[in-house]
Design a protein that fits this description.
Length: 115
């Protein structure tokens, strides 16, 4: 990516509401050389600061601090939980009532397990 393309990428990110620091970090994380990204940021920095309204950096909207996003669980997750609960219930019932169930099915008397 040339310097002009990095500048265009940084400007694009800033125009979408991303902070310049986050945009630079994205380019560095993508594998671009830090010094090249810094040079591109310096070139647009004066234009960005001049064109953006000044705000308090601690309380700015793009300060990088945001509320955690709660992820809604899908129906598949809840279906899996219900199936697991049912299977555990069946296993517990078999352990507790197993000898009686086997006696009823086979017609033979089976002694209960003693632990």
């Amino acid at each position: 990516m040339t310097k002009e393309e990095m500048i265009a990428g940084l400007r694009n990110a800033v125009s979408r509401g991303e902070s310049l620091e986050n945009a630079k970090l994205s380019l560095v994380n993508a594998g671009y050389i830090y010094s090249d990204v810094e040079e591109a940021a310096k070139e647009i920095n004066t234009g960005v600061i001049g064109s953006m309204p000044q705000s308090d950096p601690v309380f700015s909207e793009n300060s990088g601090i945001s509320a955690p996003i709660k992820k809604k669980r899908s129906w598949k997750f809840w279906a899996l939980i219900i199936v697991l609960i049912l299977l555990l219930g069946m296993l517990g019932a078999f352990i507790f009532f197993g000898p009686q169930i086997l006696s009823a099915v086979t017609g033979k008397v089976i002694k209960a397990f003693k632990f």
